[in-house]
Amino acid sequence: MRIGVLGTGMVGRALSGKLAELGHDVKVGSRTEGDGAIVFADAAAHGEIVFNCTAGAASIDALAAAGAEHLAGKPLIDVANPLDFSGGGPALFTDTTDSLGERIQAAFPDARVVKALNTINCNLMVEPASVPGDHVVFVCGNDAAAKEQAAGLLAEFGWTAERVIDLGDITAARGTEHYVILWLRLMSSVGGPNFNIALATAG
Amino acid sequence: MRIGVLGTGMVGRALSGKLAELGHDVKVGSRTEGDGAIVFADAAAHGEIVFNCTAGAASIDALAAAGAEHLAGKPLIDVANPLDFSGGGPALFTDTTDSLGERIQAAFPDARVVKALNTINCNLMVEPASVPGDHVVFVCGNDAAAKEQAAGLLAEFGWTAERVIDLGDITAARGTEHYVILWLRLMSSVGGPNFNIALATAG
């Protein structure tokens, strides 16, 4: 599959590397060309599916540079978090009635936004077996078919269907993005980013 | 142990009932007397440990009515969440740089606030075995001895030591309180409140 990955940070590198290893035709987009990266618009135009791996505070601008016409009709898998380090500590620039996922969907209404993978470290995203147990990832979005396509790629990483929790429409991104505040505390308690959560249910 | 439980809602009833069943000398405080409840101040004065089970939006006022002098020096286990339903949907009235736990500690500096149990349904709080698996509860607070006393009561409920995750000082309440936004979405996906999360670590 032709996949465009926007962002050349740790998340973009982890995802693009794994997707290429799995045999996909991957192009990585950056604000400027260089180091093997092409510009956002060329990567987005290339992809049948596009991953947003840019920093949350820069995501709307990056996606605008990618071009709404290159996102229209495509699953846009949003991995970013609305993190704000300007105040010293980690915080979100959204409140609990809002999310980056929703802002992206509103700004690019013809894209089929799926929020996913933003609750775990980038190494774990693409190698779920590196942490034992049936820990989970979350997806949400307004387009059921786009969520299925995202789940298909997640399955290629090793996230079997029962470990992909569908939280509903894109407003559920409020939940997964705000969980990141707990994740950051857990990282300190656990002693590193190689952890995740599993669901325990009564049934 | 003499325990004061502030709040006669579902959480206060679940906790006071279980604590009494375990043999503790429990008094339940309410804004007004009646239905077996005494006023907040009498319940707080009674307790060697005090539980805040009032609604988050009313907690500071309820604790003021309980009296700072009746909280001073005592573990104050804060189970409340800063939920705000005024906008229609569930939201928090705090942002990610703040928490109800911190506000309570700041308002009652002589209390030894421990945030705990606010990430699960009240039935599960006192009957962890009702959901299979090694799912966890979180504690945080500035006073290590108070956290140990809280963990002692949690152990009586069935939360063994390895299932009580210490997230550090009271600012970690930002994490557990904001997790509630994800919890509410999970409740919809799971189909009810009888679930929790377990930690999966690299080992």
Description:
Two copies of one chain form a homodimer. Chain A is α/β, with parallel strands linked by helices. Chain A has a single domain, classed as Rossmann fold. The first copy, chain A, contains eight helices and eleven strands. Chain A has helices spanning 10-21, 40-46, 59-66, 68-71, 100-107, 122-126, 144-157, 173-190, and strands spanning 2-6, 25-30, 38-39, 49-52, 75-78, 83-84, 91-92, 112-116, 137-141, 164-166, 195-201. In chain A, α1 (10-21) links the parallel β1 (2-6) and β2 (25-30). In chain A, α2 (40-46) crosses α3 (59-66). The longest helix of chain A has 18 residues, at 173-190. The radius of gyration of chain A is 16 Å and the shape is globular. The termini of chain A are far apart. Chains A and B meet through β7, α8 and β11 of A and β7, α8 and β11 of B. β11 of chain A pairs antiparallel with β11 (195-201) of chain B.
